[in-house]
Amino acid sequence: MKWRRAIVVVAIIVLTAAMQTTVFVRLRLFGAAPQLGVLVVIAMSRNLEPIESLLYGFGTGLLLDLLAETPLGLWALVCAAVAYTTVRLRRRLEDEVTLLGPAVFVFTFGALALFAILSTIFGQKTFSNAGWVGFMMLPALYNSLLAVLVLPLITRLIPGAGRRYDTVRWDL
Amino acid sequence: MWRPSPLDRTTSVFISLVVVSMTLITFDLRASEGAGFGDTLREGFQTVFEPVQRGVSAVTRPIVGFFEGISDLSSLRDENRDLREQVAQLEQELAETEALERQVRELEEILGIEPPEGLESVVGQVLAVGPSEFDHIRLIDKGRDDGITVDMPVIDEGGLVGRVVAVTDTAARVRLITDPTMKIAVRVERTGEIGYLVGRGNGPMALEMINTNAVLVEGDLLVTAGSRYPAGISVARVAEAARAELGFTLRTTAIPTSEVTRVDFVEVLIFTSDDVEIAELEGDEDGSVDTPPDQGEPTEGGPEENPVTTEPGTTLNP
Q1: Which among A14, A158, B16, B190 has most CB atoms closer than 10 A?
Q2: Angle CA(A77)–CA(A110)–CA(B45) in degrees, nearest 5?
Q3: What pLDDT, on the 0 to 100 scale, is given for residue A57?
């Protein structure tokens, strides 16, 4: 079961990275595209064990790092943070499903903001991009709309998904 | 008595991953000079991952094309009207151009000047983009096997698109001119004044002129000044007219002439700055190469590297 799940999750991550970099070559609404990598990390972290979620989140980020020009490890850190936050809050999110859309928006926006801040600290010129607020808002908005399709799809694809892990939670 | 609560396992693993990330970032940044640790990893990974990207691109292209068609439908009517007007205007310009071409031929015959040999180029298709809006890169389906090397200029029908920054046997990574790290030495085609353009993502590029007394008119064409890129390639058009106040640097904005963000097919010019150095040496022997004044700050086009410039009015249209 664990091996089957690992193979499925790795396949999802690879396909996500490939889609993120190829589908949106020309298809960009208002000059921006969804941030599928972050969305898939959120979706996986809802269904996997906490440690698994962190490791696969980190792996997804590392894959994105290898396809980007930013310092290696930046996306890995951001995606691990997204996975950790999702793991911490998922019980709450499952209890109130209406929070899922806004949560995806906030998590994606937060991930991109964290990425922008960290990359600036590490010497990138991220905030020199004209319209950088839009670069965070629009992908967050697209992700929250796509969440309706992607979250249930990932839950269906991952073997043994849907179990509740009670080991960690933040009491809100 | 207060005692620190032990961290749960998830938090411990998360902190470990943060430490690993920080270590990776530090290694990558410290080893960024030359073929560093990150670059080597990226090149190897890109070689392995490129077939996956090709496959996904081939499968999704028709679907993407369908959605793109829908999104473009509303603007097609306006575009059609504009195109009709442009055709009428172009017919008029064509007649004028033919007359000018005849004059140029006659002048060339008189002066015995050989027209410069056209640069060789490789046509490539864009396979992939960067994973986020902050990555201004494109992956094209041509690489070392096709003669492409790092630093070669990339153009489309509008003008300069970017520069090759990494290459594998079958693919090349192009950094777009709109990337904030790109700084391109340009010349105003109308006046010959030198300045440089800096990328600002999806927004118009920032233009700074070296000569603070220069006057820029809206629509002025900016072409490459030479050195890293062949001189005379269209780069951008001035978006706002500007005149400098005494003692202040002249700054304004310019819009790229190429379809940078929607580019699908590109041409990589088989050209490296070594070609220019050879041309400069040959030029020095003839005493015929223009060298603009020393500009001080390093740029993509490198005016400080004594770029080869063409006379105002001569543009290398891709």
Answers
A1: A158
A2: 35
A3: 95
